[in-house]
Amino acid sequence: MRAFAAAQPSPYNAVNRKLVLEQRTFEMSYGFVGQDKAGKEGETDNAMALSMQPDAASRSRSQKPCGRSSVNCSTGGTAVDVPVELSRILITELGDGQIIVLAEKDGNRNFPIEIGISEALAIRRRLEGKAPHRPMTHDLLASVVQSLGATLERIVINDLRDHTFFATLEIRQDKKLIEIDSRPSDAIALGVAFNTPIFVAEHVMDEVLREPTAEERIEMLRARMEILGCKIAELSSRLGDDEFLADVPEAVVADHRRQLEEMENEYEAIHHLLKKIS
After folding, report:
1. In-domain check, residue 193
2. Residues 28 and 99 grouped into a single domain
């Protein structure tokens, strides 16, 4: 697993969570935006793919590596699952949304998923092999699986419906294969310590990396503006709080001001572009 390896170059700067402030970036870089959800309504993480488009060659089906399938990739028929790996995990102190990037093992495609802070911290902790004083949720589930004499064979992100990702845990107990519905974030948090292989269904990969329509791009820009507005209000409130300013180190204050400036610049750039389009 190439944990923390660099993702492909992109106009979307995931490290600083901002877009390059150029009109061509906003016109070209927005890809699919969806959610990552388990069974219950409301238990969601945001998931997004922004400007992670492959080159023309990697779009060709004959260039794609085979995953689990009963037929050859080049002959059509049954869809394959694409082997991917966790290539980056990016955590910020602002807000609940954190970023993981899944990269195709034997190809050029990759895409980020925005997940919750709890799942992001669990993934990082388990990836680093740091054991908590008492079992956390994913540690407990891992212990249950092992105590029942079972193994987590695969994680498959197997569907995308209504802008929502779905994943399945494939657990083997003796000769029995048990499939359990899961959010991708929980599945990866569970499987990362075991180096469990991760797959993405081909149709999900195609959908998440497809070229969005003009209407979808505009809607994504508006949604991004709404998120930025909330973040800007939150940061402005913190920086206007004398008690907060007195309690935190100057470096934190400086970082907040930097992020506020970046968000305000991005907000204005999107606003200008939408005004020009309309």
Report:
1. yes
2. yes
Q: Does one domain contain both 23 and 158?
A: yes
From the centroid of its chain, how far is CA 128?
A: 19
Placement of tokens 């494939």 in the chain: 170
Q: Two tokens at 118?
A: 């709890």
Rounded CA separation 86/77 (Å): 28
Residues 21-77 pLDDT 10s: 222 223 223 333 344 544 433 344 444 433 333 222 233 333 343 455 433 333 343
pLDDT digits (tens, 9 = 90+) for 213-237: 888 889 889 988 998 999 899 999 9
Look up the pTM and report it. 0.64
Domain residues for 121? 12-208
Q: Which two tokens stand for residue 32?
A: 């699919």
Q: What is the number of structural domains in the chain? A: 2
Q: Report how far residue 146's alpha carbon sits from residue 144's, in angstroms, rounded to the nearest whole number.
A: 5
**Cβ–Cβ under 8 Å, residues 211 and 53:** yes
In percent, the amount of the chain with pLDDT more than 70 equals 70
Closest CA to 6 of 119, 82, 110: 110
Q: Are residues 240 and 200 in the same domain?
A: no
How many whole angstroms separate alpha carbon 178 and alpha carbon 192? 19
What is the average pLDDT value for the chain, to the nearest integer? 75
Same domain, 200 and 252: no
Residues 139-148: tens digit of each pLDDT:
999 999 999 9
The three-state DSSP-derived secondary structure of 45-108 is EEEEEECCCCCHHHHCHHHCCCCCCCCCHHHCCCCCEEEEEEEEEECCCCCCCEEEEEEECCCC
Residues 161 and 262 placed together within one structural domain of the fold: no
Distance, C-alpha 210 to centroid of its chain: 16
- pLDDT band at residue 93 using 50, 70 and 90 as cut-offs: low
